[in-house]
Design goal:
This is Sugar-binding protein. Keywords: Signal. InterPro entries: Bact_Solute-Bind_Prot2, ChvE-like, Peripla_BP_I, SBP_2_dom. By secondary structure, the protein is of the alpha/beta class. A six-stranded parallel beta sheet has the order 2-1-3-4-5-11, with helices on both faces. The protein has helices spanning 2-9, 47-62, 76-88, 105-113, 139-153, 184-202, 215-218, 225-239, 254-266, 287-294, 306-321, 356-361, 368-373, and strands at residues 36-41, 66-71, 93-96, 118-121, 133-137, 172-176, 206-207, 248-250, 279-280, 301-303, 343-346, 349-351. The longest helix is centred in the middle third of the chain and has 19 residues, at 184-202. It binds beta-D-glucopyranose. The site of beta-D-glucopyranose has 12 residues, from loops. Beta-D-glucopyranose binds at residues 46, 48, 122-123, 179, 183, 185, 223, 253, 283-284, 304.
């Protein structure tokens, strides 16, 4: 009764009577139950984004929000339309994993004008003032880990990444693949990897026989498995028909890794590492690749726990919707060309055949059956 009277008599905003506000719901913001969050994901062709979408949606719903989740089939106009539509429907906040990090400026301008906070999810959105927060993994370190796994596979480093005093002299022949040039992450992965490989290339322990080492030449538009397979086939015919042997391939994503492996097997390598298949790295711990690692075909991948990324995006969303700033752990690295976007970075792990159970099964990411069956 007292509460009701106080609530009635408290007057409007600025009356100073904060005691009538529901707990955890600062200022004039609506309760979570009345708020809708638009979640834009790039594609369902790669399972990581399906897992991201599911995890973000379910965790937001658990927190009481309504969720509009859309996938854009890796098509830029589809994604811009989806976000336009979300803004038109007056969502309270946007979480966006972009396809092309530079293609959303007008959507973000509209979101900014409507006062809708924008969280960039995993991939930075470039060229806009209206990116309020960025949740991701330490992308440079993902690249370091990819190159580390390649070096471990070649015997140049120990499995824990330390120097191997009994390392073979080589030289080893490697080829390089990078991700999509319009995805801001791709450059971070490649730089981290190349900084790690460079001392070995400079020392002559690693050689890139094709000579293709710059990002633009080795990039793979839209992270396409088919494009990667074709490029690997072309490299094999242009560079490896005179008896040269390929020993390793830097791959930035499991889909690309599988395209590379198909090309290699088609040219007579392998079919397993033991039978001479080159060491191929990866990323995302996609189930098909985890199974190939288990079977001794793909050498390694990088596990980025999408459940944790979803949790961080929900935490950031809640902070904004309660009128607060989310906690960042990096305020230097991610300059989108207009501003440095405050970021929360998560750590990733290298998956080898011998730690699949510990990293992926024991943590409930996959079941042992899924690892065995590859689906
Ligand atoms: C993500 C990677 C993913 C790639 C392809 C990148 O932006 O960070 O985890 O492998 O996109 O989907």
């Amino acid at each position: 009764m007292t509460f009701a009277l106080a609530a009635c008599g408290g007057g409007g905003a600025g009356s100073g009577d904060e005691t009538t506000e529901p707990a955890g719901n600062g200022g004039d913001t609506a309760a979570a139950g009345d708020q809708t969050i638009g979640v834009a994901m790039p594609t369902q062709t790669s399972e990581r984004w399906i897992a991201d979408g599911d995890a973000v949606k379910s965790q937001l719903e658990e927190a009481g929000y309504t969720v509009d989740l859309q996938f854009a089939n890796d098509d830029i106009p589809t994604q811009t339309q989806q976000i336009d539509q979300m803004i038109l429907q007056e969502v309270d906040l946007l979480i966006i994993a972009s396809i092309d990090g530079t293609a959303l400026t007008s959507q973000l301008d509209a979101a900014g004008a409507a006062g809708i906070p924008v969280i960039a999810y995993d991939r930075l959105i470039n060229g806009s003032e209206n990116v309020d927060f960025y949740v991701t993994f330490d992308n440079y370190n993902v690249g370091v880990q990819q190159a580390t796994s390649l070096l471990v596979g070649l015997g140049l480093l120990n499995a824990d990444g330390s120097e191997n005093p009994d390392a073979p002299e080589g030289p080893f022949n490697i080829e390089l693949f990078a991700g999509s040039p319009d995805d801001n992450n791709a450059g971070f992965f490649f730089n981290g990897a190349m900084d790690t490989l460079k001392p070995f290339i400079d020392a002559g322990t690693l050689v890139v026989p094709s000579g293709q080492t710059d990002f633009d030449t080795v990039a793979t538009l839209r992270w396409s498995q088919e494009a990667a397979q074709r490029r690997m086939e072309d490299l094999l015919t242009s560079t490896y028909t005179g008896g040269e042997e390929l020993h390793g391939v830097l791959s930035p994503f499991d889909g690309i890794s599988r395209g590379i492996i198909t090309a290699l097997q088609g040219a007579g390598y392998g079919p397993t590492l033991e039978e001479g298949l080159p060491v191929v790295s990866g990323q995302d711990a996609e189930i098909a690749s985890v199974t190939l690692i288990d079977q001794g075909v793909q050498f390694a991948t990088i596990f980025k726990d999408t459940r944790k990324l979803a949790t961080e995006s929900v935490r950031a969303a809640q902070a904004f919707l309660e009128g607060n700033e989310p906690e960042a752990n990096d305020t230097d690295t991610y300059d989108n060309g207009v501003k440095v976007v405050p970021s929360y970075l998560l750590e990733s792990d290298i998956v080898y055949a011998d730690n699949i159970t510990e990293l992926l099964v024991d943590t409930g990411y996959y079941t042992a059956e899924q690892v065995e069956q590859g689906s």
